[in-house]
Amino acid sequence: ETGVTQTPRHLVMGMTNKKSLKCEQHLGHNAMYWYKQSAKKPLELMFVYNFKEQTENNSVPSRFSPECPNSSHLFLHLHTLQPEDSALYLCASSQEDSSYTEQFFGPGTRLTVL
Amino acid sequence: GQNIDQPTEMTATEGAIVQINCTYQTSGFNGLFWYQQHAGEAPTFLSYNVLDGLEEKGRFSSFLSRSKGYSYLLLKELQMKDSASYLCAAKDSNYQLIWGAGTKLIIKP
Predict the structure, then answer these.
(1) Measured between CB atoms, does A50 come within 8 Å of chain B?
(2) Are B73 and B86 in contact (CB under 8 A)?
(3) Distance in Å, alpha carbon of A79 to nearest chain B alpha carbon
């Protein structure tokens, strides 16, 4: 596997379900990100992990819970979601040691909350 | 507040040239990125500008004017595969990326 991988690619869940999204990066990067992408809206940064430490939580509701067990893996645990949480959830990674650091994205998980 | 503005949608003809504009307002500035995103796929990096001027990379070029808070992406010799969304993002003083909503580019034969 190369780059950034995400599973599952598609997820349909009810509002009472609990599920987890998984992201893995094979690039040796030290930072990982969760983004939410809704139609015709800018990418919304949800969480940032730098060297496994969470450095950013952009007022994300507590029904989203991130976990970063090591610098290569990132999870997003979901529980009691709302229909408005339906979106594409993108994971990204980067090597944060200069301002010129492009982010590499995974293919995303298309989430539908019924 | 911090803001990125870019057109929602543009249409161009195969073989032609198109310019996608982006204006930004951020707290501090540490560079401007352009990404390409095909429908249903991940965004992929196209270009980075931190100094004023034009950066050319094959058929794609990106321009930055820091004093005007302005950038554009220029695509030449358009091909059908260039149909995609183009995302503009600026890095602020905290090195966080502020994203635009993207410009959907439609290429017609």
Answers:
(1) no
(2) yes
(3) 25
Chain A residues with beta carbon closer than 8 angstroms to that of B97: 43, 45, 103
CA distance B2 to B10: 24
Alpha helices in B6-109 (DSSP H): none
**Which residue carries 């965004």 as its tokens?**
B43
Q: Does A87 touch chain B if contact means CB atoms closer than 8 Å?
A: no
Q: Are B104 and B18 in contact (CB under 8 A)?
A: no
- Rounded to the nearest angstrom, the minimum Cα separation between B41 and chain A is 5
B79 to each of A36, B6, B62, B75, how far by Cα in Å? 29, 22, 18, 9
Q: Token pair for residue A1?
A: 């596997």
Q: In the block, which residue shows the tokens 């976990």? A: A67
- Read off the pLDDT of residues A36-94 as tens digits, 9 standing for 90 and up: 999 889 999 999 998 767 767 768 999 999 999 998 999 999 999 999 999 999 999 99
Residue in chain B closest to A39 (alpha carbons) equals B101
SS3 at position B81 = helix
Q: Is A83 helix (H, G, I), strand (E, B) or coil?
A: helix
Query: Which chain A positions have a beta carbon within 8 Å of B102's beta carbon?
Result: 40, 42
pLDDT tens for each residue of B35-77 = 999 998 899 999 999 999 999 999 999 999 999 999 999 999 9
Residues of B in contact with A42 (CB under 8 A): 4, 98-102
* Residue of A42, A48, A106 with shortest CB distance to B99: A42
